[in-house]
Amino acid sequence: MRNIENYTDALSKAIDKELNRELSFGCVNLWSKGSHDDMDYDLFIISKNSIIKSLKEISWAKICDFDHLREMGKVVENQMFEATSGINTHKGLIFLHMFLAKAYMDRINWQDLNSYVKILAKPLSGDYLTKDKARKWEKNKLDDIRSYPLSGFESLSKIVDDIYPKDISDLYLTLYLIADTDDTTTFGRSDLKTLKMLQEKASELLKLNNNKNFYRQAKILSDYYLANKISSGGVADLFTTIRTLQYLRKDFDD
Predict the structure, then answer these.
(1) Does the structure show a pLDDT above 80 at 165?
(2) CA spacing 20 to 30 A to 131: which of 104, 164, 204, 253?
(3) pTM score > 0.90 for this model?
(4) For every residue of 90-134, which 3-state class applies, written as one string?
């Protein structure tokens, strides 16, 4: 049976899994602030609890279109900022999960998820004409976070299909996403050349999977993020989203 508690339980579990990654590539985890001076593990838990509470309070059946969904997303976002004293811990994650939670609560089947979200998110394309940040990513030929709902989460659902019900390691999934993602958080803390270099390094590392050098080389890459104050925050949001969908995969088939 689908209900918002099942969805938020899966999301909470996925956030915890992300925070418990030993190598976080500049993100906050259980042991470190990562490359962030203004946030830590405890703040992320506060943020998580705020988001979970906000999602449970939404009347999902009353959301009738994209504009209403975006309006409710702003409510969740504002409540997060209030809980974190203005620190942006999960703005991108909220954005992604408003679409997915709506699909889940509307009882959309897995095979219809991509087309459903594509239709729902279609007005987002207007952001590339009206919003400065969206224009910036497009100018640099980067696929920003909007590309995921605009494509119906097609790339993420394919990953879920590939790993469900397999046991793919958190480290391998993280490196796969670093290699495949135009992480605008990374870009914002470095430059386009560095982003492309990190993608290439992660891609090379994936070829070492199960090799004795895999973890050692992955740690070197993670340490590079820390030494240069770079964060893979966009990748973290995708990691959490994939794990959430993995936990809910059976529900989407019901």
Answers:
(1) no
(2) 104
(3) yes
(4) CHHHHHHHHHHHHHHHCCCCHHHHHHHHHHHHHHHHHHHHHCHHH
